[in-house]
UniProtKB/TrEMBL annotation:
PANTHER family: 3'-5' EXONUCLEASE DOMAIN-CONTAINING PROTEIN, EXONUCLEASE MUT-7 HOMOLOG. InterPro entries: 3'-5'_exonuclease_dom, Exonuclease_MUT-7-like, Mut-7_DEDDy_dom, Mut7-C_RNAse_dom, RNaseH-like_sf, RNaseH_sf. The keyword Lipid metabolism does not apply. The gene is Exd3. SMART domains: 35EXOc. It comes from Piaya cayana. Residues 553-591 are annotated as: Disordered. This is MUT7 Exonuclease. The lineage of its organism: Eukaryota, Metazoa, Chordata, Craniata, Vertebrata. Pfam families: DNA_pol_A_exo1 (PF01612), Mut7-C (PF01927). The keyword Zinc does not apply.
């Protein structure tokens, strides 16, 4: 614009009494500014905008400004877009009454000026007070998606509403022509541009642009997944270029838990596969039968019946296998009593506390899995010859505390352990006593007062000889037995089933499997004790078993005993023989206390036997390297006891005569005699059990 024109325009403003009203008079009575491009009206308007900043006194307010704003709104409806911002600024339309502005927009909308209504709404920031569906629908039908995006661009809530509206247009059965009929005659609709594919692309573009959660548009997401499903079926069954495993993984991932997609999956399976495959997928998706085609529902029912028959057959075989392979309770289930109240325990105490009674005692705790401290007893099991009592100890202690019977309950437990006329059988009872003390502090001295206890862990350390009929063949791939289970296997022929050992014993009610397991753990002690008493010599025990074992409970060893390591073949397949001849002049006699040895890890049975006789024994763990024996022998001045090939390696690492090869084809007792004789160790009665076991 020439300087001369600018000056002329400014002189004109200066000469007017009311420049703002003068501009409106000019615009209302001129058609020049209605065309495209920068008209004379545009130059006059923008120049006035600048001139007002230099002459703020010309600004209007109050009723006069309101009249000007009303006239300006009428002008805005007709003026080109490039005049909107200058006019809004000059007449301060952002400060105008919002209801008046909205009414003006509504007037434009009902005239069919949808585009102008939207543009003016954007300029005046009126969108939060408008119906986004009402404003955007005609714009979408005219394919003015860019204007729609600008309309919601600064308002996340409106973005979500718009996407939800578009998603409803993707619902199965929706027809866009039902919407477009409302606008017939007002503008030319383009509903053909709004097919599912076009809508889907628009929605995904807006989801990406506005960073909105796709979950807001379930219909379009489902449609996309359905197209993926069709593609997967094409690749698998038409092109045949996808493996069954990959196809299954992709189908599962695509369908997920969406029932609508699962229904389409069943239809596709019926088209491409067979009834049985469709029924298998219906079962995998856990689809209700009423939602399935009747032929698939019938096939699914057949499949479920077949699976139940197979499961029942498998369960019967499993139970039969357990009966054949594991120790079984010889008493009926009705003779196992689960006791939770004081009244229920009274018959139990009456039977258990009979003089001359033999009671198998065991306890169960919730597994601690490395937690610090002793676990609290969850269940106390008392087994008699004809029945087993399972005491819910936490519940009984709580009831006794509340009912004032704590003293009586503790009296019964203390009497059971302290009465020498009652034989108590257990396994590793010192650990049980510690947990009993952790459960109830009043029972912390129960182990000191205990009399008449037989800890079968002591037997576990002494049993050496197994009678031929007690060999046990394990046809499965189980872990090797240990602890009480191993002792039961050697004495009674079958191990305990320990599958419930790591149960949550605090949870109530106990499962049937837990009840049977707990009863078996206690009752087997009676049968083991009875068999050992009848024939102690067959197991390498003293003829007077009761006299040798009744007393204080023993400590549980850190490493569990492996009783079946009686014979270890050498790598060459030949049984080991002592490689050194007996010396012609035996050494001077020594006592077991003076004799220190380190046993290689294939001689742990020998090590335990020598320790029972008072010898100072260290044993390698199963995972230790044989060479560790030489290291210990040099540091602590011990004799190495080994067997087989390791002897050749170890004898060269210590002084002559400080490594001895034991005949590994012998049993522990004979091995011990061989060692004692070779080193001239003289064992007295006082030496036996003189060391902590």
């Amino acid at each position: 614009v020439s300087r001369q024109l600018k000056e002329e325009i400014r002189r004109g403003f200066a000469g007017l009494e009311d420049p703002l009203a003068g501009l409106l008079d000019m615009l209302e009575n001129s058609s020049d500014w209605k065309g495209k491009g920068h008209s004379l009206g545009y130059y006059i308007t923008t120049e006035l905008q600048l001139w007002i900043k230099e002459h703020p006194a010309v600004q209007q307010s109050g009723p006069r400004l309101q009249k000007l704003q009303a006239r300006a709104l009428g002008t805005l409806a007709q003026c080109p877009t490039n005049l909107l911002d200058p006019l809004i600024s000059i007449y301060q339309l952002h400060t105008a009454d919002r209801n008046c502005l909205l009414a003006h927009i509504s007037h434009l909308y009902h005239k069919g000026d949808y585009k102008e209504a939207a543009i003016l709404s954007i300029k005046l920031k009126l969108q939060p007070d408008q119906d986004v569906e009402k404003m955007c629908t005609p714009l979408l039908l005219q394919d003015k998606t860019n204007l729609v995006e600008d309309y919601v661009g600064e308002y996340p809530e409106l973005q979500s509403k718009l996407l939800h509206i578009l998603d409803t247009w993707c619902e199965p059965g929706f027809d866009i022509r039902d919407i477009s009929r409302q606008y017939q005659g007002t503008f030319r609709c383009k509903p053909d541009k709004f097919n599912h594919k076009t809508l889907s692309k628009l929605i995904f573009r807006l989801l990406d642009r506005f960073n909105v959660d796709p979950a807001l548009c379930p219909n379009v997401i489902n449609q996309r997944h359905l197209r993926t499903l069709h593609y997967l079926f094409y690749k698998r069954f038409v092109e045949k270029t996808m493996t069954q495993e990959n196809w299954t993984d992709h189908v599962q991932s695509t369908v997920g838990e969406n029932q609508w997609l699962q229904g389409h999956l069943i239809q596709l399976l019926l088209r491409y596969c067979d009834l049985n495959t469709a029924a298998q997928w219906a079962q995998r998706c856990n689809l209700p039968k009423e939602t399935l085609p009747h032929e698939v529902a019938d096939e699914l029912q057949k499949l479920q019946i077949q699976e139940r028959v197979e499961e029942a057959t498998k369960a019967l075989k499993f139970q039969e296998s357990k009966r054949n392979n594991y120790y079984q309770l010889p008493i009926p289930r009705a003779n196992i009593h689960f006791l939770q109240t004081w009244e229920e325990t009274l018959p139990c105490w009456e039977k258990v506390l009979q003089p001359g009674q033999v009671v198998g005692i065991d306890m169960e705790y919730k597994p601690s899995f490395g937690m610090v401290g002793k676990p609290r007893v969850s269940l106390l099991q008392l087994a008699l010859k004809d029945e087993v009592f399972l005491l819910d100890l936490p519940r009984l202690l709580e009831e006794a505390e509340m009912g004032g019977r704590m003293e009586e309950l503790l009296h019964f437990i203390q009497t059971l352990y302290s009465d020498s006329a009652i034989t108590k059988l257990g396994y590793g009872m010192s650990g049980d006593f510690s947990s009993l003390a952790a459960t109830c502090s009043a029972l912390k001295d129960a182990n000191k007062q205990a009399q008449g206890v037989v800890d079968l862990l002591t037997v576990d350390k002494q049993v050496d000889v197994l009678s031929p009929e007690q060999s046990y063949e394990d046809g499965g791939c189980r872990q090797p037995e240990k602890g009480l289970s191993l002792l039961v296997q050697h004495v009674l022929g079958k191990p305990l089933d320990k599958t419930e050992q790591l149960s949550n014993w605090e949870k109530r009610p106990l499962r049937e499997e837990q009840i049977l397991y707990a009863a078996s753990d206690a009752y087997c002690l009676l049968e083991v004790y009875e068999k050992l008493c009848k024939d102690p010599a067959s197991f390498g025990l003293s003829l007077d078993l009761t006299e040798s074992l009744v007393g204080k409970p023993s400590m549980k060893p850190k490493a569990k005993k492996q009783l079946n390591k009686q014979e270890v073949p050498s790598p060459s397949g030949q049984h080991c023989k002592a490689s050194k001849p007996e010396p012609s002049h035996p050494p001077a006699p020594i006592s077991p206390k003076e004799f220190s040895v380190v046993c290689d890890n294939m001689l742990q049975g020998l090590g335990r036997y020598l320790r029972c006789l008072g010898v100072d024994v260290r044993m390698l763990e199963n995972e230790d390297d044989h060479r560790k024996a030489a290291e210990i022998a040099r540091q602590e001045g011990r004799v190495i006891l080994t067997s087989g090939l390791p002897y050749q390696t170890l004898q060269s690492q210590v002084a002559e005569g400080r490594c001895f090869s034991v005949n590994c084809s012998e049993k522990a007792k004979e091995q011990a005699l061989q060692v004692l004789k070779h080193f001239n160790v003289q064992v007295s009665l006082a030496d036996i059990f003189s060391r902590c076991q």
